TrEMBL record:
Entry's Gene Ontology molecular function annotations: electron transfer activity; heme binding; metal ion binding
Gene: yceJ_1
Annotated PANTHER family: CYTOCHROME B561, CYTOCHROME B561 HOMOLOG 2
Keyword Electron transport: yes
Entry cofactors: heme b
Superkingdom as given in the UniProt entry: Bacteria
Assigned keywords, A-Z: Cell membrane, Electron transport, Heme, Iron, Membrane, Metal-binding, Transmembrane, Transmembrane helix, Transport
InterPro entries linked: Cyt_b561_bac/Ni-Hgenase (IPR011577), Cytochrome_b561_oxidase (IPR052168), Di-haem_cyt_TM (IPR016174)
Name of the protein this chain belongs to: Cytochrome b561
Annotated Cytochrome b561 bacterial/Ni-hydrogenase domain residues: 9-179
Family listed: Belongs to the cytochrome b561 family.
Transmembrane domains' residue ranges: 16-38, 50-67, 87-109, 142-163
Bilayer topology term: Multi-pass membrane protein
Cellular localization per UniProt: Cell membrane
Length: 184
């Protein structure tokens, strides 16, 4: 079994972790929307705990993914892409991987600076290691908002590239990200 990416294909681990990150992120967004619309405080707190657990999973998986991304060869693109598009797509991919490490840290730092532990289901909590400080919280919140905005722009580019490759160029890029072997 291929454990690392190489110049020809992604490893099954990379493919699986890519989709775990995508669905974890989607779950976090859905839980946030649900939390905004439920009225009971107890339900909101439990949704927040599950959201925190998904954020922790996202952080752990993304830390490995970022390390693997920068230490492995990235597979060659399918077809004959424009070199500028390759540079942009690889830059966006690395940026998204880094953002998935830094944004959960920013959420934790913001809550820690507010004096709140990150509560997880089952009564567990991630401790606050930072001092409670409103100024620090405001700085972290601004940095989070900047990072989240850049992340969403990168995510939009990533999705655009996937849609373009699948529907316009009709190549096998999406099949490759679903774990199938494709010819370059």
């Amino acid at each position: 079994m291929q454990l690392r990416d190489n110049g020809l294909r992604f490893s099954p681990i990379t493919v699986a972790l890519h989709w775990i990150v995508a669905f974890s992120l989607l779950g976090i967004f859905i839980l946030q929307v649900m939390s905004d619309y439920v009225s009971g405080e107890a339900v909101q707190q439990e949704l927040g705990r599950v959201q925190n657990l998904l954020g922790l999973l996202l952080f752990l998986v993304s830390t490995y993914r970022f390390w693997a991304r920068i230490t492995s060869y990235h597979p060659l693109p399918v077809g004959t892409p424009n070199p500028i598009e390759v540079i942009i797509s690889r830059s966006v991919a690395v940026s998204l991987a880094l953002a998935m490490v830094l944004l959960p840290i920013a959420v934790w730092a913001s809550r820690a600076a507010a004096g709140q532990a990150l509560e997880l289901p089952g009564g567990l909590a991630i401790p606050t290691l930072l001092p409670a400080n409103q100024t620090l919280k405001q700085v972290v919140d601004v940095l989070f908002n900047i990072g989240a905005s850049a992340f969403l722009a990168g995510l939009a580019l990533h999705i655009f590239g996937a849609v373009k490759n699948h529907f316009l160029l009709k190549n096998n890029t999406l099949k490759r990200m679903l774990g199938k072997h494709v010819e370059l």
